[in-house]
Design goal:
Blueprint lengths: L1 E8 L4 E6 L4 E6 L5 H11 L5 H5 L3 E9 L1 H9 L7 E9 L3 E5 L2 E3 L1 H8 L3 E4 L1 H5 L4 H8 L5 H45 L9 H28 L6 H14 L6 H22 L6 H17 L4 H69 L3 E7 L9 E9 L2 E4 H4 L2 H14 L6 E5 L7 H14 L4 E5 L3 H6 L2 E7 L4 E6 L1 H13 L3 H16 L5
Parallel strand pairs: 2-15, 3-13, 3-14, 8-12, 12-13
Antiparallel strand pairs: 1-2, 1-4, 4-5, 5-6, 6-7, 9-10, 10-11, 14-15
């Protein structure tokens, strides 16, 4: 609630002190006297910047407002230690605009986000909101179960996240399939060397050993050939000379020579067995090493890199099947979420249609009184998935057989009165509502109904409005007048006879007859006779 405000604008010679009540507060005065200026100053208190105040060089605004525990807690979380309860606001502009609560300097962004939700100025900007589908939908959703709206939004957000996951998984699967084909080709290239990659270092050592042992092996085999040659082998020579040595009495132990030759033969067997590689020949071994090194050059990998590639090729089929299975699972989750969304959306449509029936009945009863025409509400559905369901909400005027959206043909004042009508059916969430000359361009009969609706709304929220209507002024709980005194403009609260005279001025300029009518109007509202 806004309890009081003081506005001082030196360049406009404007000064006003206003203390508001919790009900209907009305400001009257001649056109151009500064009524709208006060409403804009109130808007400024709640963090709304206005074009007129942005152009002013200097001004000060001080106010007293109620701050709830929730707002105080949010201020504390932003670093401002401000207690709940009554708080003083001070706004000043010299070179720049500053905003203080209880003397603590606060940024405009913080004020707007925290206090802006407590206040609504039904002026041009607010009226234009009726053109926006989201605003119209929010009006009808005041009748809808909040938990249903929240659950639908959660499902929608989960669906979006899942859509992103599916899109990413599909891209990754496509890329992996391309990689899969290249790895399958790699498998073919590695087929001949798969059994040797892990032994590459061992093969290098073995090939070097075989190359170094080549000459030794050849010599051992040649020596074997000499020992066992049939034409003139060592064994043959010994067999020939043995009897000769006996005949010549030459004493040599031929048996020892046999033993030496046998020992040489045995050692040759050992050498050959030790140097020969039973798995493959040296040529075969070097061919395998060449293939491995060619693959290393082609894929720019060392032997460990080749091993990793081979490991990848071994698991590729398993990975592909797993990724395809994961994608199928994600799509099943999406399908289940979509079914849940459709169920919630249909339930929400049912609730909105039921709410529309309530609103329609209210419109039929009252819209002609303050709008001069029959107002209706229409709900259509659209395809797709949205965080708020599939409903399109429109407020329309019935013109013959046609239904025309109100924002296409309604005047600015009519749009304000449509909002007033809706807010009296379901009170807004704001604590303070300001209407800028909501009665503009209306007849006395319509103005009297507007006064009744403003009075009704003021039982739920604090209402502040400027007006030229005697009916709205007479219905007020607190009445202010703005007067242009030539050298300055001032604001005064009216009571008693002064108030009756101001209402009489609104009727016909202040005649004696108008005075009596004004007094009767005030008393009628006090008695409750003016019930709309």
């Amino acid at each position: 609630m806004l309890k009081a405000i003081t506005v001082d604008i030196p360049s406009l010679n404007f000064h006003g002190d206003l203390e508001f009540s919790s009900g209907l507060n009305v400001i009257t005065g001649e056109s151009g006297s500064g009524k709208s200026l006060i409403l804009e100053a109130i808007s400024h208190v709640f963090g709304k910047k206005t074009p007129r105040f942005s152009k002013l060089d200097r001004y000060t605004i001080s106010a007293i407002i109620d701050i709830s525990d929730e707002v105080a807690s949010r201020l504390y979380n932003l670093g401002y230690e401000i207690d709940a309860g009554e708080a003083s606001i001070f706004i000043s502009k010299k070179e720049r605009t500053t905003y203080r609560i209880n003397g603590i300097l606060i940024t405009w962004n913080s004020v707007s986000s925290l206090l802006g939700s407590l206040f609504s100025l039904v002026s041009v900007d607010e009226r234009q909101q009726l053109r926006k589908e989201a605003f119209r939908r929010q009006l009808i959703d005041r009748f809808v179960d909040v938990s249903l709206l929240k659950e639908l939004e959660v499902v929608y957000n989960s669906y979006l996240e899942l859509e992103e996951s599916i899109a990413a998984a599909e891209v990754n699967l496509t890329l992996f399939k391309e990689h899969y084909e290249s790895l399958k080709e790699l498998q073919e290239e590695f087929r001949d060397v798969l059994d040797y990659i892990d032994r590459y270092d061992e093969l290098l050592v073995l090939s070097e050993k075989l190359r170094q042992a080549g000459k030794v092996l050849e010599k051992a085999k040649y020596l074997r050939k000499l020992l066992k040659a049939d034409d003139m082998s060592v064994w043959h020579i010994l067999g020939v000379i043995e009897p000769l040595l006996s005949d010549l009495n030459i004493n040599i132990d031929i048996g020892c020579v046999y033993d030496v030759i046998s020992d040489i033969d045995e050692q040759i067997d050992v050498i050959i067995a030790d140097l020969e590689y039973p798995e493959m020949s040296l040529d075969e071994l070097e061919h395998i090493i060449w293939k491995i090194q060619r693959l290393m050059r082609k894929y720019d990998e060392d032997i460990d890199g080749l091993k990793r590639l081979i490991e990848e090729t071994r698991d590729i089929d398993v990975i592909l099947r797993q990724r395809e299975a994961d994608l199928i699972q994600l799509k099943k989750k999406r399908e289940n979420l979509l079914k849940r969304y459709e169920s919630l959306s249909e339930k929400l449509t049912e609730d909105r249609l039921e709410a529309a029936s309530t609103i329609r009945a209210y419109f039929r009863k009252h819209s002609k009184d303050i709008l001069g025409g029959i107002l209706d509400i229409v709900i259509n559905r659209k395809e797709g998935i949205y965080p708020y369901g599939n409903d399109i909400v429109d407020f329309v005027f019935k013109v013959g057989d046609r239904e025309i959206p109100v924002y296409e043909i309604a005047s600015s004042g009519e749009l304000s009165r449509i909002l007033l009508l809706l807010y009296t059916l379901v009170p807004p969430t704001q604590y303070v509502m300001v209407f800028d000359e909501i009665d503009a361009g209306t007849s006395g009969n319509v103005a009297s109904h507007i006064a009744w609706f403003l009075k009704k709304l003021s039982k739920h929220v604090q209402v502040i409005t400027s007006t030229h209507s005697q009916f709205i002024a007479a219905a007020s709980d607190t009445h202010f007048v703005v007067r242009d005194l030539g050298i300055r403009k001032e604001v005064k609260m009216l009571e008693g006879d002064h108030r009756v005279k101001e209402i009489a001025r609104l009727i016909d300029g202040g005649s004696e007859r108008a005075y009596d009518v004004a007094l009767e109007l005030i008393n009628s509202y006090k008695r409750g006779d003016m019930n709309g």
